[in-house]
Amino acid sequence: MGGLLDKANAVKDAEIVEESPAPVKADTKAEALPKPVESKTDSSSSPAGNPDTAMKLNLGGWVVILLGAILSLQGGAWGFLAVSVVLVLGIGAIVQADRMRGGLNKPKLYASIGVALLIAGGPYALVMLFPSNANIAITDVAIDEDNDELDFAIRGSFTSVELKIESDGEVLWESSEDMSNNLKRINVPIKDFFAGNTEDFDGSVLKTYTIHATSSNGNEVQLDINSRHLSRQALNGGVQFTPYVSTDNNGDGASTTYEGIRVEAFVGLFADGEKEMDDGKHSYAASGSSGATSKIRAFAGQQVFTLTVSKESSGGYTHPDVNMNGDVASWTSDFSGAASSPVFGFITLSGTAIDNEGFEYIESNKFFDGDGCYDFTLTVTNQNLGDDFSTSFTVVNSWEINWESQEPEDRKKHPTC
Predict the structure, then answer these.
(1) Residue 187, beta-bridge partner list
(2) Which of 103, 259, 392, 394 could form a disulfide with 381 if both were Cys (CB 3.0 to 4.6 A apart)?
(3) What confidence tens digit (pLDDT) does each residue in 148-157 have?
(4) What single-letter DSSP state applies at residue 226?
């Protein structure tokens, strides 16, 4: 009996051993081991740069993009320029910030670029490309020098628009235009509305021209034209000259010969009191000399002028007609043919021969008729400004030329007369 009980107890103990949860505990411990490994791997990834600097750089990029969105509301060329610049600067800052954090996250980067495009470019697109029925815009105002026109665009969704150009409460030009594809480009001859310069010689505003537009759905907008565009009537002019002297060493001592003169001319605007000075100079040119505060301003217009150098009633020499077209002057040289020059201050004109330094000059035998007072007569005609403003005027600057004098000092001096 005792033997049977012992056997039964042995079987029962074996069953208890088989059902023991000990192996499960061992498996649980095995599964728990990777957790510290995963934690160790995560903690080893640290930013490549200063996180504070990266955050500031990222924030700065978005501020620039937001500023671009505000500027782009102006539309036109300025709006496009603003959008382009801020996108380059803003997106560049965002990309650099991402790099400083340890590497480029491409999905995040692409999403950021898309948002930046929407923020900075969205207002420009709305104003310039997709105007709503509630909007009307005047954009792209410019001067077409080739056709002597004021050009601008009307944008918006409506069937027609009433236009007018006013100044000082006076309607100078008006028109009615049909719209097409939310855009209508307008070309107005300057002579049809010009009523005087918008700026004085010193840049002070004299008057303002304003474009008014009223859409067929009753919306109105107006825009003042940049005053620099319509300061086009020349009212002043002046001349300068420099003698061209050659030297000959023939064994009996050096001798000098006055071969002729190099001539410059100015047409545009300057203050009352500007005049010729001794030695062939002009006070307006002196205002832009080295060490002085330049008063010379750019002038753009449509003029034709001629220059004559003569003594009293002698025929003298007449320079070929000079055509000023916007900011470029052109003419046909008696010596070299077609010639041109940018218009800013005094223009160096051509002549009948070329000196040793490569400059054209007017030969003395073309105008010199003995010692005396010589008139440099500038005749200017404004063009394409309408009947009341396409005016002509004449300026005479005069100097003594005494190249036949027996006194060397007298030959060198050229006082006004």
Answers:
(1) 151
(2) 392
(3) 999 999 999 8
(4) P
Token digits of residue 23: 């192996």
Distance (Å, whole) CA 307 – CA 380: 9
Q: 230, 142 in Cβ contact below 8 A?
A: no
Q: Cα(138)–Cα(221) distance, rounded to whole angstroms?
A: 7
**Positions of the chain with pLDDT lower than 70, given as ranges:** 1-50, 68-83, 86-87, 102-105, 108-109, 116, 120-134, 250-254, 288-294
Q: Which residues of 47-62 are buried (b: 16+ CB within 10 A; e: fewer)?
A: eeeeeeebeebbeebb
Burial 130-149 (b: 16+ CB within 10 A, else e): ebeeebbbbbbbebeeeebb
The tokens for 193 are 């509305």
Structure token digits, residue 43: 């903690």
Contact present, 219 and 257 (Cβ < 8 Å): no
Which class would CATH give 137-225? Answer: mainly beta
Nearest alpha-carbon partner for 365 in 379, 351, 349:
351
Q: Whole-model pTM above 0.85?
A: no
Tokens of 33: 């081991």
